[in-house]
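Many introductory courses stop at the sequence. We go one step further.
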Amino acid sequence: MTSTADYANLRAELDTLTTEAFRPDLAEIDRRSTLDIARTMNGEDATVPAAVAQRLPEIAAAIDATAARMARGGRLIYAGAGTAGRLGVLDASECPPTFNTDPSEVLGLIAGGPSAMVTAVEGAEDSKEFAAEDLTAIDLTDRDTVVGISASGRTPYAIGAVEHARALGALTIGLSCNAGSALAAASEHGIEIVVGPELLTGSTRLKAGTAQKLVLNMLSTITMIRLGKTYGNLMVDVRASNEKLRARSRRIVALATGATDLEIETALSMTDGEVKNAILTLLADVDGPTAARLLEASNGHLRAALEATKPH
């Protein structure tokens, strides 16, 4: 049972957070025109990329460390509550179709479990123990990377996740939107994107959520670039699981090789629809099995596989 004193302490703590600060200049925003409110929101959102830009060295260091772990077979695991947890699950769920990762390679954990994606689970974010249990359930190892996500930087679930992971020797990253956060302090790589007070006081699904989405985009995308999941800016590991993606696969092969439609179809049929392999057969003039061997020898890096086919 939470006491009045406990609530007073929590309220005092929230009063110190930039993400919870009250904006007197917006106290009568509900009396403005819809267009004026939209302009104000848009102006607020425009400040987020600049806040991210200030933390690019920390973001890059975290990405390099993550890619090194994943290259050795480690996983990328996001852990958060509420909006932060949902953003982690979203980023993780988009990796298999975009980069052909196994669903077990990039995971999103949300306080309260999968049902919390659509329905708030009261109290789940307040437990460090729940985070440790969730990580234990997926057999966390020291090769993995755990990213705790929390706008306030004080959410027990996110802090508990990085504390448990760090104790096991896993790489830890703490992503928050307040300076001097407990989450950053608990993590090996602390990333604090200070976006300032929200348009609606304490509604961290707004600027803080946008900032977290931008950083997670960088974290997963650039890690996958480092792991050879792209060729230039082409998604050569895309999984063609529907008609749109099948058409995109053919377009990617065309952009990478300049081949004719007939050549592309032949290459894809020879490589079981694997875009990266098909490109290699066309650019290096090798057959499907040879392309597969070359890519395996180069750990999936298409540029390295192409280099291996050139006379030295």
